[in-house]
Amino acid sequence: MTLDEQRISAELRRMADEARPVDALAYAAQARAGSTRRRRLSLSVAGLAAAASVIAAVTVATGATGGGPDGVTAAEVDRLPDNTPEQARAVRACMPQGGPVHSMDGRRRIPEHGAVADFRLLVEYRDEGGSTALVGSRAGFVLCTPSTPAELAERAVFTYWGFKAPGNMRGFPGALQVDAYTSQSRYEEGRDKATRDQTYRVVVGRVTADVRRVEIDWADGRRTDARIADGFFIARVLGKSVPRPGGGKDAFGEPLTVLDSPPVTVTAYGPQNQILEQVKDEAYGPLGRGTGY
Fold first, then answer.
1. Cis, peptide link before residue 255, omega less than 30° from 0
2. Average pLDDT, the chain
3. To 5 degrees, how large is the angle CA 90–CA 95–CA 96?
4. What's the pTM?
5. Which residue in 220, 221, 203 sits closest to 268, CA to CA?
6. Which residues does 56 contact at the CB level (< 8 Å), separation at least 6?
7. Beta carbons within 10 angstroms of residue 253's beta carbon
8. Could you read off the pLDDT of 10-46 as tens digits, one per residue?
9. Quick check: 93 and 83 in contact, CB under 8 A?
10. How far is it, in rounded angstroms, from Cα 196 to Cα 129?
């Protein structure tokens, strides 16, 4: 048996071991909710206008304790940290199909984008509405935003570091790299069994060891300090919907809306709170850049 055949066989066995019965009602609810969400919020105003590998352990060069919201140390993006048991469970929950999936089909896994074992929970942003995590491999990353029920969670859509295969985790000039400015939705089933959703604007990326703080200017009067860990950062704010240009109504007779997502400014600060690098007018866009899916 060839190495590829061994990998495929092992993966099939693992998927069979983890397989769960399909909840038809949950999938139907997900399809309806996902369809409605895409019509209402997955588009941006700016947008309308315009396998498995072993992760090698290498040395990490760390800087002094940072001044970010968690007081964490920024590090050279030189390796992937190990998952804690809790983080490993969160990564598995994020990718129930065993790895990243197609952007339009949450049950269609894309094997060339890696398996769950390749991914680490790199950094997480928590607020009163829940959390969004940057989960990455050496090739690329997905975003994970838990929902209740879990079947309605966002799909684990993969994006290459550097937006080109095979992915370059360390390949960015300067002190700051913005890897995604996108949206994530969180669903919650209330006591009345009705499903409510909230959509967040999310910015993620990488920084070098001398960065102590990353600030996002959301262009709507709000500014947020990102969470930083081991050279990765993430921030999010609750999104706002606005009427869709041109109007119209969806299949349920509700007015069509879009996520208000103007370009953002991302600033990296050094030990003396000096600006090391600033990215202006970063445009909103979907995940999956450079993958062809």
1. no
2. 79
3. 100
4. 0.75
5. 203
6. 79
7. 6
8. 444 444 443 433 333 333 344 444 444 443 344 454 4
9. no
10. 12
